[in-house]
Amino acid sequence: MTEWSTAVILISVLVMAAAVTGLCLTCWRMVMKAQAALVNMEADYKQLSKQAVQVLEQVSLTLETVQRPLAAGEFIASHVQEVVQAASRTAEAMSAVSQTAAKAAVEHLERARLDNERTMGEVFRWVDAGMTFWHAWNQRSPKSGGGRAE
To answer: CA neighbours within 13 Å on the CB side: how many for 29?
Structure first.
């Protein structure tokens, strides 16, 4: 019976050894596949990183190319804005000057009208006084012929 027990144990050990060997071979194959996948992934990663660097360089160049005109446009826009502000201030100043000039012109015209009225009033008073004096003179003078001028 010991022989049978020994044979069973030997067979069990051999089966276990075969199972462990099979399990180790399966694990070894999995590790090798994982290593091959990692090698492939590393190669893909390197390729992708090279492509990413190229894309980033192109993007950087593009951004620099776009940034120059934008900076120039910003410079021009700020100067255009300054010109617009200056034009607006000039227009406001011109409006204020024209309003002041218009008020001054109206005041000057009003003064001139009043002066003209006063002067013309004096002239008409003098003319009236002269005509009255002449008429009175003509009526009292002996040559007048009845107060009429001939």
So the answer is: 6
